[in-house]
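fyi for ur records
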Amino acid sequence: KRISNILKKNDLPLPHQVDVSLLVAPAEKELFNQMNAVTPQIDQAMADADFTKSLQLLAQLSTAVTGFFADVMVNDPDLQLRGNRLTLLNQLHQQMSRIADLSQLAKWRL
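which gave:
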């Protein structure tokens, strides 16, 4: 939900791909690397219609996402860094949206 809210507030045109040279914080590098490692597995699980496995793979990113939000200022004053970070979050959001509307799942929390 947090990623969705951040992306909704963005008014910058986002690049299509993350620029690796603009990943400066260790936590954003870690998230990028983990996303790249798990994406092919998620793609395969989705192709196999194994949604449980897809969610489990996506859940593996939880620590990296938490670290990203703890250590990285998404709305950096440097517009290149900000755009790159938003692109990274957008790619993560797209992966999540392929599997499930997680905003709906959040409504079911007790």
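The mean pLDDT is 89. thats all i got for now
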